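Thread title: Can someone regenerate the structure for this chain?

I was given the following input by a collaborator and told the matching structure tokens would be attached. They weren't. Posting the sequence so someone can regenerate them.
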Amino acid sequence: MLTGYYDEYIVNLVHTYDVSSGSASNITSLDGVVLKIPAGAIAVDKKLYVTSPPVPLPPMYHPFQLNNYDPAVRPVKTAIEVRFVDRSVDINKPFTASFPFKNADISGMDVNKLKIFIYNNITNKWILLRDCAVDTVNNKVSATLTKLGIFMVAEYNPLRGGGPDDGGSTGDVIINASAYPNPFNPNVNSATIHYLLPQDLDVEII
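Best answer:
Regenerated them for you:
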């Protein structure tokens, strides 16, 4: 097992994996994370790693340390990081990733509500990836991703209140509603409103 450093935290590097620029790369980590990276996703061959959580856990690896406890999100376990050894490099094509879970990890949870989240290290918040597929036979959650980073599998139930990147809203209908400009300026011809919905709904702005 290799040892490296992530800021002031010690990181255990599980293993490194070769990613080819000229052909597809199918990677299965020792933790059971499966990555399917298409040809041409990087300009030159690179090595990729999957880390186990560092000790002590910085906030991005421990979701409950972010924005206090969020009842809408119940993490299955601590997060895991997937990056190239050369951290200046990222994927330039969509790829698929599958993250495993154990039955013991989801005790009391609704397996069909498991989602993948990615950590935004600029806003220090978790971002929900909505187009996730749950495989209850092989116990894994999959999604198409566009970048590497720190990921977490969690049960997501916005009807319990809250939600990722919610700014403290109730989560019953609209999550993270924000408008620009704010306050509204009637002299500006347009305004931009960002929001998330727990499901497909008709929205009326009045």
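The CA atoms of residues 21 and 114 lie 32 Å apart.
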